[in-house]
Specification:
The complex is a heterodimer of chains A (673) and B (402). Chain A contains 23 helices and 24 strands. Chain A is of the alpha+beta class and 673 residues long. In chain A, strands 2, 3, 4, 5, 11, 19 and 20 form a 7-stranded mixed sheet that branches. A 5-stranded antiparallel sheet of chain A has the order 13-12-24-23-22, with helices on both faces. In chain A, strands 7-1-9-10 form a 4-stranded mixed sheet. Chain A starts with a helix and ends in a 10-residue tail after the last helix. The relative contact order of chain A is 0.10. Chain B has 402 residues and is mainly α. Chain B has a 3-stranded antiparallel sheet. Chain B is globular, with a radius of gyration of 22 Å. In chain B, 47% of the residues are buried. Classes of the chains: A alpha+beta (673), B mainly alpha (402). The interface between A and B is large, with 40 and 45 residues.
Chain lengths: 673, 402
């Protein structure tokens, strides 16, 4: 080969040159081998870091559906007007040239003026002080960009019939930090604006509509507490890639089902890589990892019953009244309706909620789910528990008990526990169990409660799992309050405390959902169920082949273990409370359905034992013969009323709706998709 | 490789070398095209497109090189001093503001001739080779005279100083090895060469020490960008030792900016890997990370290396090796010392360009604006390279018979 021929030359000088050249080329070859073969990975990753930006793409959030497939929460397209800065590069450059030309003119004039003043041409050093600094040039560039963008935006604003201000500082910051992404100008265009834009601005380079998914709750305030709401949050969920150059807006569920099942609803965010040039402008984009859509959550809620309950509550109590309604299937534990009042519109949270609306929500503590997240004294509805304890421990329902008159008000009864006198709303006279139950006689139940003993009441209460969470919305539920056996055996437990418990006051506090579970257990023959709010979680696209998670219905948490006869006695008494003329719950009665109920009124006292309000209760189930539904209504009130008169009409309305549904021909299983 | 019997027929060209040159020109056209049209189809008319212009320059260069072969190189050598002084005049003219053009860059290197500019420093290198060969081809005994030695040095230092003044450090520097190698081959006594080598070495070391370590007051005057290039190469901080933290931060930022080209060139070369991204698929030029003004020019090699990988680099190096070693073969067969010296000068010049240019792409050598012969875009460079190759072929045609 020629190289070796030359290296073997007998001309010593040429041989030396040949050696030097061979060595030189060898060095280059070794260097290139080192850079291109050995360290190529390093340089490839350099190339990627400088030329690619990764963008987090949020997944399409799953829907929330009612038990019949009606949509309670979904996504609707939203069009944002955005500037695509990469399309504006040429106008930016042109505007900069223009500005630079003007600046040069000014510069020339000042130099000329200076020269005139000095009377001689400026030296190089003197000229230098008039030269543009890098900062000044940068400023000119920024100004050029802003002018171009502002002109474009105001032009579009005129066409849309809406002035569009462009914040210079915000724009510059976006230019510096988010150049590869569109710059949002106007969020959520309405239909007219979209039409106008499409008609008149389609050929404006640099501006376009950007499609985004927006969370929509089509029924507004309906079931707001069950559904919960979203908050803007684009951070990476656990198990996701945590490093992105940019993140597109995303949301996180914070309350209700949106919060509880956030990870299933939100799906898995994907990743897009954007190829950028040396200035950071977008060149092309490529989806590396498509987002996986979230799953749909199908609730046990029945939209018709839910809306009927809400409507009835607002009609009877007004929108600002505090209270809760729970409707449950007594056999399956399915929650058919869960109302908490006052309520809010979760749509307000999808955009950033206005300060005014937030203040209003705060003032009313409207964000609190009163069906699960507040402790209430149960009042007389707790007498159902006391009844079971007494009946199980030897109370003869036919035994006559005489209520003594209250000396201060002879038309009403009273009872002494130790030295304390407890008023009885029942008039003095003879009472058997059923009569005492429907008159809700404090004297009767305190006497028989004391006779049965607090331990037995506690034992029954524990079977109902009072003082424990039902697990319906973890993190949004209180335990309530119920004395333990240890507590009732302690030395500072007195008969007065037992008497208080017997009438649902004192050391007992419950939530409406607990009461619904309790009533259901009485109705269904003693099965204490786990209430169920979610039927299943299923993929948005049934063809995707992803698994559906079913939550089994009718999971039994505990058996009451009481005699069926005792339950039957209580049920019959509850029927009488609604059906008989003497009953307190007659307002709930519905033609065509035998409703069983128990009303209650609990006093709310402040720390000084002053009465500051009442909780009115109505716990019910129906039909009597073959119980299927439990309805519990609770109203917090500052005014005089009663469980029957305050809550009864709502119970009535809800059963009317249930009856209507029962009697309507085959329900329409509309599956909204 | 080539059967010597073919060459014995006389008046033959060195075909192997011509093949290699043709290969380099093909690569040059292909990658100038790639580097200038990668981002988008150019809006320029076809005759204004850079790669077309490059091909036109190749054609002109081939014509000029071929025309040169019509005369015996002895005839050319007789005119060498005239040519030498003409280019010296051009180099002087470049320094005059209204004649020399800065081409938008900091240095004054071009003379504007209406539709095109020419770079006298490129021609000065050739003129120097011819003049030096003519001067050094005198009988070896005369070379032992001190006066002749210093005259030879003067012949080299005049264009060196003028090119340095432009300033074009790279072009000036390649004159030194060219001159020294020619002196060595001519038979200049070793002691002179050693002294020269030691002198240049010590001067270079002092200069470097001054740039890198001396306090500002003691530093020699130098263009900022030249000092920065040296500092970038040696990875030294721009900031003085006693600088405030802000100054240091600013210096670091400046350093990052100044090392931008080398860094991008290294990324281009390194990301090429074994086989590269493919012709016109390199992202570094398309996305503008490799400056658009330099990619088809001084950094053409990084475009080839990114798009064709190590394989491409190997092909380029092989083609140059063929050109250089066939050159040495021609030198060995030259009829006389004049021919040998001309060829050795050309070979050294081409080698210096190749080594410095490719070396700077992989950070073996500091960045100097010096073209890669036949590959880099540029009329003057292409023309001079082809004329230089014409000179070699001229010597080959008029070689001694066996």
């Amino acid at each position: 080969m020629i190289i070796f021929d030359e290296l073997k030359k007998n001309d010593p000088q040429l041989r030396l040159i040949a050696i030097v050249i061979a060595v030189g080329l060898g060095i280059l070859l070794a260097g290139l081998w080192w850079v291109q073969i050995v360290s190529t990975g390093k340089y490839q990753s350099h190339l990627e870091t400088q030329a690619y930006r990764t963008v987090r793409l949020p997944a399409v959030r799953g829907k929330i559906l009612d038990r019949e497939g009606r949509v309670l929460a979904e996504n609707s397209p939203r069009y944002d007007l955005s500037l695509y800065l990469d399309d504006l590069r040429k106008p930016f450059a042109a505007a900069y040239e223009q500005l630079l030309k003007q600046a040069r003119e000014v510069q020339k004039q000042t130099i000329d003026a200076r020269q005139k003043k000095l009377g001689h041409a400026l030296t190089k050093a003197e000229r230098k002080q008039f030269a543009f600094t890098t900062e000044e040039l940068q400023q000119l560039r920024a100004q050029a960009r802003w002018e171009v963008a502002d002109n474009l935006v105001s032009k579009i604003g005129r066409k849309l019939g809406q002035p569009l201000p462009l914040d210079a500082k915000k724009f510059e910051r976006a230019y510096e930090t988010r150049l590869a992404l569109p710059y949002p100008v106007l969020p959520d265009l309405d239909e007219t604006q979209i039409a106008r834009f499409e008609e008149q601005c389609y050929d404006d380079p640099g501006a376009d509509l950007e499609l985004q998914a927006m969370r929509v709750y089509p029924f507004g305030e309906t079931a707001a507490h069950v559904l919960g709401y979203l908050r803007s949050d684009d951070s990476s969920a656990a198990g996701e890639d945590a490093f992105f150059s940019y993140r597109l807006p995303d949301y996180r569920g914070v309350e209700g089902i949106e919060g509880e099942f956030d990870s299933q609803l939100r799906g898995r965010a994907g990743e897009e890589s954007v190829l950028v040039n040396n200035l950071g402008y977008r060149q092309s984009e490529n989806i590396l990892d498509p987002p996986e859509p979230g799953h749909n959550v199908v609730l046990t809620i029945d939209l018709d019953i839910q809306r009927a309950a809400e409507k009835s509550f607002v009609e009877n109590q007004g929108p600002d009244a505090r209270g809760a309604v729970v409707v449950m299937n007594v056999r399956t534990g399915d929650v058919l309706a869960m109302v908490s009042s006052p309520t809010f519109d979760p749509n307000d949270f999808a955009q950033k909620i206005s300060e005014e609306k937030w203040q209003q929500i705060q003032k009313l503590t409207a964000e609190k789910n009163r069906a699960t997240y507040e402790n209430y004294a149960p009042g007389s509805i707790f007498k159902t528990v006391v009844s079971l304890a007494a009946l199980e421990n030897g109370l003869d329902p036919n035994e006559i008990y005489r209520v003594q008159p209250n000396p201060e008000n002879p038309a009403r009864g009273m009872i002494y526990v130790g030295k304390r006198a407890i008023k009885d709303t029942a008039p003095p006279g003879d009472y058997n169990f059923q009569r005492a139950f429907i008159h809700s006689s404090n004297s009767y139940f305190i006497t028989n409660g004391l006779r049965a003993g607090i331990e037995n009441i506690v034992r029954i209460g524990e079977k109902f799992h009072l003082g424990e969470r039902t697990g319906i919305l973890p993190g949004q539920e209180t335990r309530g309050n119920f004395p333990t056996e240890k507590r009732v055996h302690s030395r500072d437990w007195h008969d007065g405390d037992t008497a208080n418990v017997c009438i649902g006051q004192g050391e007992v506090a419950v939530t409406p959902i607990q009461m619904a579970v309790m009533v259901s257990a009485i109705a269904n023959g003693g099965k204490v169920l786990w209430p169920r709010l979610v039927d299943r979680i299923e993929p948005q696209d049934p063809a995707s082949g992803e698994a559906t998670t079913n939550f089994p219905a009718g999971l039994v948490r505990d058996e009451l273990g009481v005699h069926p006869r005792s339950l039957q006695i209580v049920r019959r008494a509850m029927l009488a409370d609604v059906e008989s003329n003497e009953g307190t719950g007659t307002a709930a009665a519905v033609n065509g359905m035998q409703i069983c109920g128990k009303t209650g009124t609990a006093q709310v006292q402040d720390v000084k034992n002053q009465i500051i309000g009442w909780n009115y209760w109505f716990a019910s189930f129906a039909p009597y013969e073959n119980p299927k539904y439990a309805v519990v209504v609770m109203v917090e009130s500052q005014s005089r009323g009663s469980g029957g008169t305050t809550c009864g009409p709502m119970v009535h309305d809800i059963y009317e709706e249930i009856l209507k549904k029962e009697n309507s021909p085959a329900p329409v299983f509309a599956r909204a998709n | 490789m080539v059967d010597p019997s073919i060459n014995e027929r006389g008046n033959q060209l060195d075909r192997l070398q011509l093949f290699a040159v043709a290969g380099l020109m093909f690569l040059g056209a292909a990658f100038v095209f790639s580097a200038t049209t990668a981002s988008q189809a150019s809006a320029l008319p076809w005759f204004d497109q850079i790669w077309i212009r490059q091909i036109i320059w190749y054609a002109i260069g081939i014509g000029a090189g071929a025309a040169l072969c019509l005369w015996d190189y002895h005839t050319l050598a007789r005119w060498s001093l005239v040519i030498y002084w003409a280019t010296i005049l051009c180099l002087l003219a470049v320094l005059i503001p209204h004649i020399g053009s800065t081409h938008g860059w900091g240095a004054r290197r071009w003379i504007d001739l209406g539709p095109f500019q020419f770079q006298p420093s490129e021609f000065a290198k050739l003129a120097f080779i011819l003049a030096a060969a003519n001067f050094l081809s005198r009988p070896p005994d005369e070379l032992k005279q001190r006066g002749i030695f210093w005259k030879g040095i003067g012949l080299m230092m005049l264009p060196f100083a003028l090119i340095l003044k432009e300033p074009d450090l790279g072009s000036a520097l390649v004159l030194l090895p060219t001159g020294v190698v020619m002196m060595f081959v001519a038979g200049t006594p070793k002691k002179y060469l050693l002294k020269l080598g030691a002198g240049v070495g010590i001067l270079g070391a002092l200069l470097l020490a001054d740039v890198l370590f001396a306090p500002p007051a003691l530093q020699i005057k130098m263009q900022d960008y030249q000092r920065q290039r040296l500092l970038v190469y040696f990875g030294a901080s721009f900031a003085a030792a006693n600088a405030t933290p802000e100054q240091k931060a600013e210096a670091r930022h400046l350093q990052f900016e100044k090392s931008y080209q080398v860094r991008q060139a290294m990324i281009s070369v390194g990301s090429g890997g074994l086989t590269g991204a493919g012709w016109r698929q390199g992202s570094q030029t398309a996305l503008g990370f490799l400056p658009a003004g330099a990619a088809h020019n001084d950094f053409i090699f990084s475009v080839i290396a990114e798009e064709e990988g190590f394989v491409g680099s190997l092909v380029v190096l092989t083609l140059y090796a063929v050109v250089l070693f066939t050159g040495l073969r021609i030198a060995g067969r030259a009829r006389d010392r004049l021919g040998k010296l001309v060829v050795v000068g050309v070979v050294t010049l081409i080698f210096s360009h190749v080594f410095i240019n490719i070396g700077m792409n992989i950070r073996i050598v500091p960045v100097t604006g010096i073209p890669l012969p036949l590959l880099s875009y540029g009329g003057s460079s292409v023309l001079c390279s082809l004329i230089a190759l014409g000179l070699m072929q001229n010597v080959h045609i008029h070689r001694r018979g066996y």
